[in-house]
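User: Predict structure, ligand S-adenosyl-L-homocysteine.
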Amino acid sequence: MNPDFSEQRHQLVSFLRRYGVYNDAVLAAMERVPRDFFVEDAFLPYAYSNQALPLQLGQTISQPLMVGVMTQALYLEGHERVLEVGTGSGYQAAILSQLCAQVYSIERYAPLSEEAARRFKTLRIQNIALHVGDGTLGWPEHAPFDRIIVTAAAPHVPTRLASQLVPGGLMVVPVGEQLKQTLTIVKRTKDVEDGLQVQSLGDCIFVPLIGDDGW
Ligand code: SAH
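Assistant: Predicted complex:
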Protein backbone atom coordinates (compact mmCIF):
# COMPACT_ATOMS: atom_id res chain seq x y z
CA MET A 1 0.00 0.00 0.00
CA ASN A 2 1.38 3.42 -0.91
CA PRO A 3 0.92 6.39 1.44
CA ASP A 4 -2.01 8.73 0.80
CA PHE A 5 -0.87 11.14 -1.88
CA SER A 6 -4.22 12.84 -2.51
CA GLU A 7 -3.01 16.26 -1.33
CA GLN A 8 0.12 16.10 -3.54
CA ARG A 9 -2.04 14.95 -6.45
CA HIS A 10 -4.36 17.90 -5.93
CA GLN A 11 -1.37 20.30 -5.89
CA LEU A 12 -0.06 18.82 -9.12
CA VAL A 13 -3.44 19.25 -10.81
CA SER A 14 -3.53 22.93 -9.72
CA PHE A 15 -0.05 23.34 -11.24
CA LEU A 16 -1.20 21.73 -14.52
CA ARG A 17 -4.18 24.11 -14.65
CA ARG A 18 -1.86 27.12 -14.24
CA TYR A 19 0.52 25.88 -16.93
CA GLY A 20 -1.88 25.24 -19.76
CA VAL A 21 -4.08 22.21 -19.14
CA TYR A 22 -7.55 23.78 -19.30
CA ASN A 23 -9.72 20.76 -20.15
CA ASP A 24 -11.69 19.90 -17.00
CA ALA A 25 -12.20 16.26 -17.94
CA VAL A 26 -8.44 15.79 -18.43
CA LEU A 27 -7.71 17.50 -15.09
CA ALA A 28 -10.33 15.33 -13.36
CA ALA A 29 -8.77 12.17 -14.82
CA MET A 30 -5.33 13.26 -13.56
CA GLU A 31 -6.83 13.95 -10.15
CA ARG A 32 -8.31 10.42 -10.14
CA VAL A 33 -5.45 8.24 -11.43
CA PRO A 34 -2.71 7.66 -8.80
CA ARG A 35 0.62 8.34 -10.57
CA ASP A 36 2.37 6.85 -7.51
CA PHE A 37 1.20 3.40 -8.71
CA PHE A 38 3.08 3.89 -11.99
CA VAL A 39 6.54 5.03 -10.80
CA GLU A 40 9.34 2.78 -9.56
CA ASP A 41 9.47 2.53 -5.74
CA ALA A 42 12.75 4.48 -5.57
CA PHE A 43 11.01 7.49 -7.13
CA LEU A 44 7.84 7.39 -5.03
CA PRO A 45 8.70 10.71 -3.30
CA TYR A 46 8.74 12.39 -6.74
CA ALA A 47 5.53 10.82 -8.07
CA TYR A 48 3.69 14.16 -7.97
CA SER A 49 6.47 16.49 -9.06
CA ASN A 50 6.25 17.63 -12.67
CA GLN A 51 9.11 15.39 -13.84
CA ALA A 52 9.66 12.52 -16.21
CA LEU A 53 11.01 9.65 -14.07
CA PRO A 54 13.09 6.56 -14.95
CA LEU A 55 11.40 3.20 -15.55
CA GLN A 56 13.11 -0.17 -16.12
CA LEU A 57 15.09 -0.76 -19.33
CA GLY A 58 16.16 2.87 -19.80
CA GLN A 59 12.63 4.14 -20.48
CA THR A 60 10.73 6.97 -18.75
CA ILE A 61 7.26 7.81 -17.49
CA SER A 62 6.41 11.14 -19.15
CA GLN A 63 6.22 14.48 -17.38
CA PRO A 64 2.67 15.08 -16.06
CA LEU A 65 2.36 18.40 -17.93
CA MET A 66 3.20 16.61 -21.19
CA VAL A 67 0.60 13.91 -20.42
CA GLY A 68 -1.98 16.65 -19.81
CA VAL A 69 -1.13 18.61 -22.95
CA MET A 70 -1.05 15.53 -25.21
CA THR A 71 -4.29 14.14 -23.80
CA GLN A 72 -6.03 17.49 -24.16
CA ALA A 73 -4.87 17.72 -27.80
CA LEU A 74 -6.85 14.54 -28.58
CA TYR A 75 -10.23 16.26 -27.87
CA LEU A 76 -11.76 13.10 -26.44
CA GLU A 77 -15.53 12.96 -25.89
CA GLY A 78 -15.85 9.48 -24.41
CA HIS A 79 -16.86 7.26 -27.32
CA GLU A 80 -13.45 6.96 -29.00
CA ARG A 81 -11.14 3.99 -29.61
CA VAL A 82 -7.59 5.17 -29.01
CA LEU A 83 -4.27 3.56 -29.98
CA GLU A 84 -1.22 4.35 -27.83
CA VAL A 85 2.30 3.49 -29.00
CA GLY A 86 4.67 3.18 -26.02
CA THR A 87 2.81 1.75 -22.99
CA GLY A 88 5.83 2.29 -20.70
CA SER A 89 4.51 2.48 -17.13
CA GLY A 90 0.89 2.51 -18.31
CA TYR A 91 0.17 5.93 -16.77
CA GLN A 92 -0.79 7.68 -20.01
CA ALA A 93 -3.00 4.72 -20.96
CA ALA A 94 -4.71 4.87 -17.55
CA ILE A 95 -5.47 8.57 -18.08
CA LEU A 96 -6.87 7.83 -21.55
CA SER A 97 -8.97 4.97 -20.16
CA GLN A 98 -10.95 7.52 -18.11
CA LEU A 99 -11.74 9.66 -21.15
CA CYS A 100 -12.54 7.29 -24.03
CA ALA A 101 -14.28 3.96 -24.66
CA GLN A 102 -11.32 1.66 -25.33
CA VAL A 103 -7.53 2.02 -25.27
CA TYR A 104 -5.19 -0.20 -27.32
CA SER A 105 -1.59 0.17 -26.18
CA ILE A 106 1.55 -1.33 -27.71
CA GLU A 107 4.95 -1.64 -25.99
CA ARG A 108 8.13 -3.18 -27.41
CA TYR A 109 9.45 -4.38 -24.01
CA ALA A 110 7.42 -7.27 -22.54
CA PRO A 111 8.44 -6.61 -18.89
CA LEU A 112 7.06 -3.06 -19.06
CA SER A 113 3.81 -4.27 -20.62
CA GLU A 114 3.43 -6.99 -17.96
CA GLU A 115 4.03 -4.50 -15.15
CA ALA A 116 1.47 -2.10 -16.67
CA ALA A 117 -1.07 -4.97 -16.89
CA ARG A 118 -0.60 -5.67 -13.15
CA ARG A 119 -1.20 -1.98 -12.35
CA PHE A 120 -4.42 -1.86 -14.41
CA LYS A 121 -5.66 -4.98 -12.62
CA THR A 122 -4.97 -3.49 -9.18
CA LEU A 123 -6.76 -0.29 -10.16
CA ARG A 124 -9.63 -2.29 -11.76
CA ILE A 125 -9.18 -0.56 -15.14
CA GLN A 126 -10.75 -2.83 -17.73
CA ASN A 127 -10.81 -0.91 -21.01
CA ILE A 128 -7.13 -1.17 -21.96
CA ALA A 129 -5.91 -3.90 -24.34
CA LEU A 130 -2.13 -4.46 -24.35
CA HIS A 131 0.15 -5.86 -27.04
CA VAL A 132 3.91 -6.45 -27.12
CA GLY A 133 5.53 -5.60 -30.45
CA ASP A 134 6.56 -2.84 -32.83
CA GLY A 135 3.96 -0.10 -32.45
CA THR A 136 5.11 1.73 -35.58
CA LEU A 137 3.18 -0.96 -37.47
CA GLY A 138 0.02 -0.03 -35.58
CA TRP A 139 -2.51 -2.72 -34.64
CA PRO A 140 -4.24 -3.64 -37.94
CA GLU A 141 -6.69 -6.09 -36.29
CA HIS A 142 -8.28 -3.22 -34.35
CA ALA A 143 -7.82 -0.38 -36.88
CA PRO A 144 -9.11 2.16 -37.73
CA PHE A 145 -8.70 4.27 -34.58
CA ASP A 146 -10.38 7.58 -33.76
CA ARG A 147 -7.18 8.80 -32.12
CA ILE A 148 -3.53 7.75 -31.94
CA ILE A 149 -0.99 8.91 -29.35
CA VAL A 150 2.69 8.13 -29.77
CA THR A 151 4.66 8.57 -26.54
CA ALA A 152 8.13 8.06 -28.06
CA ALA A 153 10.00 10.32 -30.50
CA ALA A 154 9.58 9.60 -34.22
CA PRO A 155 12.12 10.70 -36.88
CA HIS A 156 9.26 11.72 -39.21
CA VAL A 157 5.45 11.76 -39.17
CA PRO A 158 4.65 8.02 -38.97
CA THR A 159 2.45 7.69 -42.05
CA ARG A 160 1.89 3.97 -41.51
CA LEU A 161 0.16 4.81 -38.23
CA ALA A 162 -1.71 7.74 -39.81
CA SER A 163 -3.22 5.30 -42.31
CA GLN A 164 -4.88 3.51 -39.33
CA LEU A 165 -6.81 6.67 -38.38
CA VAL A 166 -10.46 7.13 -39.32
CA PRO A 167 -11.07 10.04 -41.74
CA GLY A 168 -11.12 13.14 -39.52
CA GLY A 169 -9.08 11.29 -36.84
CA LEU A 170 -6.22 12.86 -34.89
CA MET A 171 -2.74 11.67 -33.95
CA VAL A 172 -0.39 13.36 -31.49
CA VAL A 173 3.27 12.46 -31.90
CA PRO A 174 6.68 13.93 -31.01
CA VAL A 175 8.61 14.35 -34.29
CA GLY A 176 12.24 15.40 -34.70
CA GLU A 177 15.76 14.51 -33.66
CA GLN A 178 16.73 11.99 -30.99
CA LEU A 179 17.36 14.63 -28.31
CA LYS A 180 14.68 17.21 -29.11
CA GLN A 181 11.36 17.06 -30.92
CA THR A 182 8.28 19.07 -31.83
CA LEU A 183 4.99 17.88 -30.42
CA THR A 184 2.96 17.42 -33.58
CA ILE A 185 -0.76 17.04 -34.24
CA VAL A 186 -1.66 15.15 -37.40
CA LYS A 187 -5.21 15.20 -38.71
CA ARG A 188 -6.35 12.75 -41.36
CA THR A 189 -8.58 14.86 -43.58
CA LYS A 190 -12.08 13.71 -44.46
CA ASP A 191 -12.19 14.73 -48.10
CA VAL A 192 -8.74 14.01 -49.55
CA GLU A 193 -7.72 10.35 -49.72
CA ASP A 194 -4.77 9.95 -47.31
CA GLY A 195 -4.53 13.73 -46.85
CA LEU A 196 -2.79 14.77 -43.63
CA GLN A 197 -2.83 18.19 -41.97
CA VAL A 198 0.11 18.80 -39.64
CA GLN A 199 0.31 21.36 -36.82
CA SER A 200 3.01 22.02 -34.19
CA LEU A 201 2.35 22.39 -30.47
CA GLY A 202 5.84 23.26 -29.19
CA ASP A 203 9.04 21.54 -28.11
CA CYS A 204 9.27 18.27 -26.24
CA ILE A 205 11.77 15.54 -25.32
CA PHE A 206 10.93 11.82 -25.52
CA VAL A 207 12.86 8.55 -25.67
CA PRO A 208 13.24 7.31 -29.28
CA LEU A 209 10.58 5.36 -31.13
CA ILE A 210 12.48 2.24 -32.21
CA GLY A 211 11.00 0.25 -35.07
CA ASP A 212 10.22 -0.31 -38.69
CA ASP A 213 8.78 3.20 -39.21
CA GLY A 214 10.86 4.79 -36.41
CA TRP A 215 14.60 5.02 -35.63
N1 SAH B 1 3.30 6.37 -22.17
C1 SAH B 1 4.38 5.96 -21.27
C2 SAH B 1 5.70 6.62 -21.67
C3 SAH B 1 6.69 5.56 -21.96
S1 SAH B 1 8.22 6.08 -22.68
C4 SAH B 1 4.01 6.22 -19.84
O1 SAH B 1 2.96 6.84 -19.57
O2 SAH B 1 4.73 5.76 -18.94
C5 SAH B 1 8.05 5.43 -24.31
C6 SAH B 1 7.88 3.94 -24.42
O3 SAH B 1 7.82 3.65 -25.83
C7 SAH B 1 9.02 3.11 -23.87
O4 SAH B 1 8.52 2.22 -22.92
C8 SAH B 1 9.57 2.38 -25.10
O5 SAH B 1 10.01 1.06 -24.81
C9 SAH B 1 8.38 2.37 -26.03
N2 SAH B 1 8.65 2.21 -27.46
C10 SAH B 1 9.66 2.73 -28.20
N3 SAH B 1 9.53 2.35 -29.49
C11 SAH B 1 8.43 1.56 -29.56
C12 SAH B 1 7.76 0.87 -30.61
N4 SAH B 1 8.19 0.88 -31.88
N5 SAH B 1 6.64 0.17 -30.31
C13 SAH B 1 6.16 0.12 -29.04
N6 SAH B 1 6.75 0.76 -28.00
C14 SAH B 1 7.86 1.47 -28.25
